Amino acid sequence: MTVSLPRVHVLGVGAIGTLMASYLRQRFPALPLTLVLRNQAAADRWNAAHQTLALGQHTSVQGPLPVTTATPPQVHWRLATGIDAETLTDSSSATSPIACLVVTTKAYQTRAALAPLRARLDSHSVVVLLQNGLGVREELEKALFDRPATRPQFILATTTHGCYATASYRAVHAGFGGLWFAVVPSSNAPSLRAQAVADLLLALPLQPHAEPWPQFQIRLLTKLAVNACINPITALHRCRNGALISHPKHRITIDHLCQETSTIITRYLLEHQMANATSDLAFSPQELCQHVVEVCQTTAKNKSSMYQDVLHQRPTEIDYINGWLVRQAQRYRIPYPTHQALVAAIHAQEAEYRMDKD
Ligand code: KPL
What we know:
Number of strands: 12
Strand order of the largest sheet: 5-2-1-6-7-8-11-12
Helix content: 40-55%
Bound molecules: ketopantoate
Structural class: alpha/beta
Largest sheet: 8 strands, mixed
Low-confidence stretches: 59-69
Mean pLDDT: 90
Number of helices: 13
Radius of gyration: 20 Å
Order of helices and strands: EHEHEEEEHEHEEEEHEHHHHHHHH
Shape: globular
Distance between the termini: 57 Å
Strand content: 15-25%
């Protein structure tokens, strides 16, 4: 049986949204592609950008560097044309069902961004979530898709491609990494459409890897653990990743974070029956610390994504990184003083610049 290419809607057209939509358009020129724009201002910017997406490549790297780097394909500017746009606030905007929605909004924006599209998503839809941290899917299920029978099929994805926006609908693909994803098991019958979307992702020249769900969960937990032990310290001390390993004070904080994180994740693995010799080892305090130090070394010159958020006075993803660990620790009644202190300190910074803006 052949499944025709579903129309793909992309929600969240920042750096990663531009990367995904540009590569989808380049790789599948006949694929129907629609950008979902937040409001009229976004639609005006789309018109000012001549309804095109541009993805460039520079040799100088800004923004978070991927942990694994390889040479990006030698293309300097890709211009993606022939893309439709829908504005959420436009009363005449489409009401037709959405077959495939690729969501690249920040974790904390996702629920509000998806809510206006709820009526267009059902168990035949596939939603690809590309957020940092953990907890977004569970939040969406609780708030928007509480009836399992009408839930879309979720695909969770994570990327190490380094990409930053230079203007609206313009981004630079600065570092070549990989794209990993997994279809989330659901009680609904496995859908052919989820397979078609997985095939689309696998065909992108972004080093894609489809993984079984348990293996992918370990990948996400590992990324979360590393981000939780690096990002908030760099954001609070306004330092690059490399500084964390050269300052004894930061090394002590990392040690405490690794201890707490290891205990929390080990309990989580047990609860979800994911514990085995390999995962237990990966999340021992020693292994975790070693991994964090290695990431600090390989990304020494990077400003972490949370440091950049704080620098630009944007909300951070702390609630989906350390906040997620805190929520698990509370459930398990495990102490989490270092994570708690960091979450509180980042919230205080966010509140300060929110007040400055008001
Ligand atoms: O993923 C990252 C981030 O900044 O969010 C690390 C690995 C810490 C690189 O900066």
